[in-house]
Specification:
single chain; Rossmann fold; seven-stranded parallel sheet; 8 helices; binds NADP nicotinamide-adenine-dinucleotide phosphate
Length: about 250
Amino acid sequence: MSFANKVVIVTGASSGIGAATALMFAKEGADVALIARTQAKLAAVAKNIEALGRKPFVIQADLSKEADAATVIPKTVKHFGKLDVLVNNAGMASEGCLLDGKALQAYDDMMKTNVRAVIQLTSLAAPYLIQTKGNVVNISSVVEIRPSMVPTLMFYAVSKAALGHFTRGAALELAPSGVRVNSVNPGPVENEFITNNKLGNVDELNGSLAGFTALGYLAKDDGIGHVILFLASNKARSITGSTYVIDNGYLLK
Ligand SMILES: NC(=O)c1ccc[n+]([C@@H]2O[C@H](COP(=O)([O-])OP(=O)(O)OC[C@H]3O[C@@H](n4cnc5c(N)ncnc54)[C@H](OP(=O)(O)O)[C@@H]3O)[C@@H](O)[C@H]2O)c1
């Protein structure tokens, strides 16, 4: 699956799924722009890509801030000259539910990063993607399809459900211009998402998450990356508006 001469933006590229995916795109010959807030982690991912003989473009940005997010597409296009693929992977989770008084705060925080920033980036990217007949891959979750088993994460699921409808709406709007938009929906992944989002005190997440899957083991970051690369590639040229679940059978249980 060659991405030679392709320019790919991966948001949330400083860790987990985004870091693994950016490296995989670079291995396939892409010029990659890495977006996240944490400079040190971005530098570590950039170093791994440089070891492949490629030169990534790093943009430190807090995508929950409109002014920061607004810089990502113009800077990337100025640097690499075009845009072929936008991977909207950056995402966060915070706790809040109806009875704990944190519902609106949790909703606002997650909608800003998980949905609003995706809409902003996709909107700014669309004119360039039309030029290259490129595509967008949004990273959602199985909780788009079935609400989280953890009540305090209900607004995480709400944000991913909104992202799902955005994927389908964007796919419909951009199809006549030759631009595809799809979504990858992981179940629990073996990475630092729980730690990074300080969800370690959520009892349901501390047991064996693997036990909630039919296969009895969790997906890894590069396993999600393989599906992202497939959807971004020409092999998926007939796929748009689709929701690709990769959950080790989590939704079966
Ligand atoms: N891990 C799972 O079990 C799982 C399951 C289903 C779906 N997902 C989804 O997969 C995506 C990637 O998460 P992950 O599992 O790889 O966890 P992760 O390691 O915590 O990655 C999240 C990434 O998003 C970035 N990010 C968060 N807020 C940001 C902001 N305001 N501005 C810019 N970047 C921001 C983080 O970088 P900085 O902190 O450096 O900004 C980090 O690079 C997310 O959308 C998540 O919802 C994860």
